[in-house]
Design brief:
about 150 residues, mainly alpha
C-alpha cells in the first residue's frame, strides 16, 4: 500500500472512531446550565470599544430575555432576522411589538450600566440611545448583531 493511501485509511479510521466516541458519550455529558437573565451581572473592566460593545449586546439580551421570561440564548437565536423574531414571538405567546419593546428596553438598561461602569462615555451613550429609540427594529438588530465590527 502506498504511503498516501495508508495515511488516508488511518485518517478515515480516526474519524470513524472519533464520531463513534462522541455518539457513545451522547447524553452522558453534563448539561451546561442556562444562566438566569434576570440576575444582574458585573461589568468586566474593558480594554477597548469592542469589549464594551460585546458586554452591551449581552446585557441587552439579558434585559430583554428577563422582560420576556425566556433564556438569553433563546432570544439571541431569535434575533437572526425579522422572520425569526416573528416566530419567536408567536412561539412565546407575545406580540412582535412586545418583543421589540423588550429589546429596546434591554438596550437602554445596558447603555446605562455601561455608562455607570465607565465602559462608555456620555457621548457614546447618547448616540446609542438615539439609535435604540429611532432606528427600525430590523436595523437595530443588525447593528446589535454586528456591533463589534460596526464600532471597532
Amino acid at each position: 500500500m502506498r504511503r498516501s493511501a495508508l495515511a488516508l485509511v488511518v485518517c478515515a479510521a480516526a474519524s470513524v472512531t472519533l464520531v463513534g466516541a462522541y455518539s457513545a458519550l451522547g447524553d452522558s455529558a453534563p448539561a451546561v446550565p442556562i444562566v438566569d437573565p434576570c440576575v444582574p451581572r458585573e461589568w468586566r473592566a474593558t480594554s477597548g470599544v469592542e469589549a464594551a460593545i460585546e458586554q452591551i449586546v449581552l446585557s441587552t439580551a439579558d434585559g430583554a430575555a428577563c422582560e420576556l421570561g425566556v433564556s438569553r440564548e433563546e432570544l439571541l437565536l431569535a434575533l437572526g432576522s425579522g422572520s425569526d423574531l416573528d416566530s419567536f414571538a408567536a412561539e412565546n405567546d407575545i406580540t412582535r411589538s412586545d418583543a421589540e419593546s423588550a429589546i429596546r428596553k434591554g438596550l437602554d438598561g445596558a447603555i446605562g450600566d455601561a455608562e455607570q461602569a465607565d465602559a462608555i462615555g456620555a457621548g457614546t451613550a447618547r448616540l446609542l440611545r438615539q439609535i435604540s429609540e429611532n432606528f427600525p427594529i430590523g436595523i437595530l438588530l443588525t447593528v446589535l448583531g454586528n456591533a463589534a465590527d460596526v464600532f471597532s
